[in-house]
Design a protein that fits this description.
The protein is built from 14 helices and eleven strands. It is α+β, with helices and mostly antiparallel strands. The longest helix is centred in the first third of the chain and has 19 residues.
Length: about 350
C-alpha cells in the first residue's frame, strides 16, 4: 500500500489531524478544521466560533493561527512521505456547515526525509510559569537555531528584559480595563477542572501555571464586573504585574514580519520559528499585548530600531522550563476537527 493509499484511511487521517492540531493559536482557540476528499484533496476551513471578535477585530490573529495550522499540517504530512501541492486560496464567503473555507490543496507523495522540525511538533508548548535561567551555552544554541530567521531578535540584557516585561504588564492592564475585552478573555480561561472545556481548548489553570491560591484569586478578580469595580484602585495593577517574578530568569524575543506580508503567511513562518525555538530547548510565553497596543509597539519599534519595511508581530518571553513543570495544553479531539 502506498503512502497516499494508506492516508485515505480514517485511522491515518485522524492521527495526522491530531498531530497537526498541536499548532499554536491565540488563546488556544484552535480554529482550524479539515476536510478530505476521495480525489486526494484536502481543504482547510475556519470555525467562526473560535475567532476573537473583540481582541482581534481585524481577524489578523485568526489568520495567523490558520497559517500556523496549515504549516504544521505540511510538516506532519512529511512524516508520511506526503506533501500539499497546488494550493488554492478560496474566495471569501465559501461555507460548509457554517465554517469558512480558507484553501484547498492536492495531497501527493514526496521523496525524501521528513521535515527536520517534525519531531518537535508534539514538544512545542507555551509556558507561563517561572523559567530557569538559560546558560550562555544554551543562549548560543538558541541564537544559532534562529539566526537565519530575519524576524527574531534576542534581548537578554537584564535591564532591557525588565523594561519589556514592565511594558507588557502595562499594555495587558490597559486592555483588561475594556470590559468587553476582559469578558472575551475570561470566556477562554478555565480556572477549575470542573469546567466542561478544561481538557478541550482555551487556557486552563495548569497551563497558566497557577497554583491553588492564584487560580482561585484570578477566577474572582478577573470576573469583568468585579474587575471593573477595582481597576481604578492603585494596588490592582501591582497585584497582577508579572514582571517582578520573571525578569531575572527570562529573555525576550522580538518577532517581526515584513510590513506587507499577509497574515496567513506570517502564521506559517511563525509556526516554523516556534518549532526552531523548541528544537533549541527553549519554551516561550507570548506577550501579544505589546504588539497589539500602539503605544508599546511604537516604543519597542523605536528602541530596537525595527526598520520601516518591518513591523512588530509579537514578543515572546523565553527560557528553560524547570524539570517536571511543563503542562501540555488541551486539544479538541481529532474527530471534531474533521468536517
Amino acid at each position: 500500500m502506498t503512502p497516499l493509499e494508506f492516508f485515505k484511511s480514517e485511522k491515518a487521517q485522524l492521527e495526522t489531524v491530531a498531530r497537526a492540531s498541536r499548532a499554536p493559536s491565540v488563546h488556544n482557540t484552535q480554529a482550524a478544521r479539515w476536510k478530505f476528499s476521495n480525489q486526494n484533496k484536502i481543504s482547510l476551513y475556519a470555525d467562526p466560533s473560535a475567532r476573537l471578535n473583540v481582541a482581534d477585530k481585524s481577524g489578523v490573529d485568526h489568520l495567523v493561527g490558520l497559517g500556523a495550522a496549515f504549516e504544521t499540517m505540511q510538516i506532519v504530512l512529511s512524516e508520511r512521505s506526503l506533501v500539499m501541492l497546488k494550493v488554492r486560496m478560496s474566495p471569501p464567503g465559501e461555507l460548509l456547515n457554517g465554517h469558512e473555507k480558507i484553501l484547498e490543496a492536492e495531497i501527493s507523495e514526496k521523496i525524501g526525509m521528513p521535515d527536520l522540525l517534525a519531531p518537535f511538533v508534539s514538544q512545542r508548548n507555551s509556558f507561563r510559569g517561572v523559567f530557569e535561567k538559560a546558560s550562555q551555552k544554551q543562549l548560543q544554541t538558541l541564537n544559532k537555531e534562529i539566526s537565519f530567521f530575519e524576524r527574531a531578535q534576542i534581548v537578554s540584557e537584564l535591564s532591557e528584559v525588565e523594561n519589556i516585561l514592565n511594558l507588557a504588564d502595562e499594555a495587558s492592564f490597559e486592555f483588561m480595563k475594556d470590559e468587553n475585552y476582559l469578558k472575551e478573555l475570561y470566556s477562554w480561561m478555565r480556572f477549575s477542572r470542573l469546567h466542561p472545556r478544561w481538557n478541550v481548548d482555551g487556557l486552563n489553570a495548569d497551563v497558566m501555571a497557577l497554583n491553588f491560591f492564584e487560580r482561585s484569586f484570578a477566577a474572582g478578580i478577573l470576573q469583568p464586573q468585579i474587575f471593573k469595580s477595582i481597576s481604578g484602585l492603585s494596588f490592582t495593577q501591582n497585584i497582577l504585574d508579572e514582571a517582578p517574578k520573571h525578569t531575572a530568569t527570562s529573555i525576550c524575543l522580538l518577532i517581526t514580519k515584513p510590513t506587507e506580508e499577509k497574515a496567513f503567511d506570517t502564521g506559517r513562518q511563525f509556526a516554523r520559528l516556534w518549532l526552531h525555538i523548541t528544537k533549541a530547548g527553549f519554551a516561550v510565553c507570548p506577550m501579544s499585548a505589546l504588539a497589539d497596543s500602539p503605544r508599546t509597539r511604537d516604543i519597542l519599534t523605536e528602541r530596537f530600531r525595527i526598520p520601516k519595511e518591518k513591523s512588530l508581530m509579537t514578543v515572546l518571553r523565553a527560557g528553560i522550563v524547570p524539570e517536571g513543570q511543563q503542562k501540555i495544553s488541551p486539544r479538541i479531539s481529532a474527530k471534531k476537527l474533521i468536517l
